Amino acid sequence: MRRWLLWIGLIALLALTVVKLALNKRTVIERVYRHDKHAPVHVTVEAVLAGRGGQGPRYGGTIVPVREGRVMAEVPGRVLHVAVREGQQVRKGDLLAQLDGELLRLQQEAALVQVAALEKDLARYRVLTAADAVQGVQLEKTEQALHSARIQLANVTEQLQRTTIRAPFDGEVTQLLVQEGSVVAPSMPVATLSDPRELEVLLHVNEKDVAQFQHGQTVQVTMGDRSTPFTGTVHSIGRRGDVANRFPVRIALSADTRIVAGMSTTVILPNSTTVDQVTIPARALLGSAIEPEVYVVRDSVARRMPIAVATAGDGRMIVQRGLTAGDLVVTSGAVSLHDGARVTYR
Q1: What pTM did the predictor assign?
Q2: Integer Cα distance of 284 and 305 in angstroms
């Protein structure tokens, strides 16, 4: 009897467990979110506009000095003294650094002694040659030796002078590359010098856009958060691109204390078109700049469409092909869309 009661209790417990698990599964299934692919997606749209743009394409650039370069050591030596610091203004000819020239001074003294001795020998041989006491060839050899010694003296003297490193032009020391005690070799940079009085904008423009720049062209240049643009003039267009097929374009600026080397800039070309342009916000673009696309909403259905665009500025793009004024393009919520999706919008 007890055995039967035990079996009945186990069966009842098992039945209760199965029922409880089934109820839990039902509850979990009811709580799981199921996406309804037929439900409309809520998006934000904006109408395609038509109008005559007041500005042309924009390009990012950097303010750089017209005159900038590294001052190199021309002779080897140990740095005895650094006469400037970073950020210091210098004039042409000012001392930048002094190298140890003791060995060169000793060579100079030896060359001076040799030249003096040969000059005395030359004077004696001239007297002896005039008296036919020695052969004329001896006089010629002495003259040649004196000439060679003078060249050697001039060479050592020039090297000794180059142990004093001076500024090649007026400017600012933007970087010091040596310190006292450093040992430098020929062609080793000592300092970077730039002239902050003459600045220009340097752009790197791709091969498709470089044709929009012309020598003498007037452009607008904006810097940082300054609302008032500066006026610049294109004075150099590179004819050789880099490995990324970008060409350097340099824009001259008028002197202004507010302009500092290293500032980022935006160069705005004048708008050359005289016809109305169709524009969309840049945030509506999908895909890459090479093959841009947008979602267009018609009859509450989103359709993905390829378009052709160009930069217009102020966060908008000029649509060259694919849209007409009044079309509604999706500007927010496109991540949840697919071609043909039903939408609600505002």
Answers
A1: 0.56
A2: 12
